[in-house]
Each structure stands twice: as C-alpha cells, then as structure tokens.
Amino acid sequence: MVALQAIPGGMGALLARRQLAGGGGDDGDEDQASYVGELFLMAAGALFFALNVAPTEEVILIAYKATPWHALALIVASVALMHVIVFEAGFAGQEEAEHPLKAFAHFTLPGYAIALGISLFVLFLFGRVEGHSLEGLTQTVIVLGFPAAVGAAAARLLV
Fold it and tell me: What is the C-alpha to C-alpha distance for residues 126 and 15, in angstroms, rounded to an integer?
C-alpha cells in the first residue's frame, strides 16, 4: 500500500516541478501533442486523483448510500464539469473548442470513459472490488469517477 501511495506523491512532485519551473519560451509543446498523447495525460490526471481518494472509506460509504438516481446525477455532473473545466471556465491553459459538440465527443466523453476505467483499476489495486455486487461496484466506480474526471480535466490544463 505504501508503494501504491508513493505513485501520486511522485506525480505531484513532477507536476510541481512543471508548474513552478519558471522556464520561458518552450510552452508550445502542448500544441504539438497528439490525440493519443492528450488521452494519456487525461489518464495520468485521473490516476493521480483516484490514487489519492480510493483508499478512503468515504468512496464506499457514498456509493453504498447512493441511489441509482444519485449515480446518474453524478455521471452527468462529472461529464459536465470535465467539459466546463477544459473548454468553458476560463482557466489558464484552457483550450478553445472549434465546435462545442465536436470537443464534447472527441475529448470529454472519451476522457470520462478513461476516468471510469482508471477508477475501476485503482479500486481493484486497493482490493475494493471483492464482495461487491455488480450494482455496488458500478456505483463505487461512478463515485470514484468524479474526482478522477476532475483530475483528467485538470491534467489537460496543467501539463
């Protein structure tokens, strides 16, 4: 477990170095990132947030108390928040969408699918999938998918 928790610590150190390194002039690398590269960055951001939240009991507790309607609302909120963070909110590094629907289908939906996949993987790593029904596991993945989605969206802006 300690080795697993060292991963987000190392990722945080890399992120801090990237953000605090007062380098000038070589900020154009993001414009040259491929589609697969951007999806990889989203996976890294989702992993960073999910590894920090998954070991807590709150994820299981919220999933246990949530109804299917809560889970559906959390899916909608996660997807909407991802899209707003990357394309609409006006944060530094925000991307400009050529067409909002194209950006939604091209980045937001695949990014959320990646966040859910990372969430399931992290839950498996921490042994949180054993003994759950399919409905309980699905709700747990959706609950962990919320911070993972925020991490995926933030990674596209920060890195």
Answer: 24
Residue in this structure with the two tokens 């530094």, named with its chain if needed: 92
pLDDT digits (tens, 9 = 90+) for 100-156: 788 788 888 999 999 999 999 999 988 888 888 899 999 999 999 999 999 998 887
Residue for token digits 């966040």? 115
Backbone angles phi, psi at 110, to 5 degrees: -60, -35
Q: How far apart are CA 88 and CA 69, in angstroms?
A: 26
DSSP 31-93: GG--HHHHHHHHHHHHHHHHHHHTTSHHHHHHHHH--HHHHHHHHHHHHHHHHIIIIIS--TT
